[in-house]
Amino acid sequence: MRRTARQLTATALTVAAAALAAAPAHGTSGGGLEVSPASVVPGGGVTVRTAACGGGSVTGDASAVGAGSLSLVPDAHGQDATGRFRVPPSAQPGTYEITATCGGSGRRITGDLVVTLTPVRGQVHPRGSVKTGVGGALGPDPVQTAAGVAALAVAAAGGTWLLHRRARGDGI
Amino acid sequence: MRRVPGFGIGVRSPANAAMAAVTVFALCSGVWLLRDAAGTHAPPQPSAAQARAGLDGGAGPDGRAGERPGVPPLPPSPPDRIRIPSIRVDAPLTGLGLTRTGSLDVPPAADENLAGWYEAGTTPGERGTAIVAGHVDNADGPAVFYGLGALARGSTIEVDRRDGGVAVFTVDAVEVYAATNFPDEKVYGASHRPELRVITCGGGWSRGTGYQGNVVVFAHLTGSR
Asked: Do you know which Pfam families this protein is assigned to (chain B) (predicted)?
């Protein structure tokens, strides 16, 4: 009985911690390691992101939760480095520290990941529209245009050659 | 000089005949290529007939004639792949988070056949609103959800899940919403049954602002296997 009660308390605490952690899930937490989502079920995917390393290479360590090490790749602007890992399906509920080390300075930054068995749903919905296009389908296709111009050039050359032959009386 | 039988004038030289053929072929293909290249069109947009009419009453579409009834939700399992046979979509899914402004992040644009799902949210097939997003185009041309606006009510969307099952959704509506007044609750809000949203860019394009909104497909779970 006592043991069951303790387990129940632990579960309740985990859920509470998850609920607390979910609130700042996508904040930057002062140049630390941004863990998204901050609360995840075993087997779920996690994205970590940091701007603290200034565009250099970053090595992440998720071995606390049993996911080993990972590398964070800087984005095109050289600001954020982003990496992904998957929480093993066997992971136990709890709070785990995920760390990252800047390749250049050796600076170490950390973020928390909460593993919970009952998914904490619905607190954070996306907002607003999604940027899923740049208009690349609208302009003329450059490759096809170049091919068309090349084909017309061939036609022009062929036509000229034939006219020359005809002018010389070879006929066609 | 050789006369080709059957030609009144005669093609007197094989070289001439070959060159004439090449010239005609090059002319035709050149014209066709240029016409086709210039005619790359804006992505299809949904018609009013595909809109959510009647879905917004709160009661859901369950009472509508011809609507396929929903089925019980599936247990949570991350999705691996999305297929929409009627617009020839068959693409892997990557996990998506949120941007700093709270909007849904997008898959890498360079891969034109890649879609993403919001992995902090509901998994497709589970009770609630699962969200999938993908690009309508990238710098090189059309991308995975180019044809999304042409999807019709009643079409089928299949999602392969990591547990080996396939969640089958039926399209309820296809809408286009302006970015300036985006109905967050309608698109992302919770649902009492397993639902799916598939989102891409749409709603007109201008050089200054890019696409001015999103095409959103509303679907609900109608089967699994």
From this structure: Sortase
Among B101, B126, B135, B200, the residue to mutate for chain A (most A Cβ within 10 A): B135
CATH architecture entry for A2-115: Sandwich (2.60)
- The Cα A25–Cα A122 span in angstroms is 13
**C-alpha distance from A135 to closest chain B C-alpha (Å):** 6
CATH fold, domain B48-224, is: Sortase; Chain: A; (2.40.260)
B141 phi and psi, to 5 degrees? Answer: 140, -160
Q: What is the pLDDT of residue A139?
A: 67
- With 0.80 as the threshold, say if the pTM is over it: no
Contacts of B22 in chain A (CB under 8 A): 154, 158
Model ipTM value? 0.70
pLDDT digits (tens, 9 = 90+) for A58-100: 899 999 999 999 988 887 777 788 888 988 888 887 889 999 9
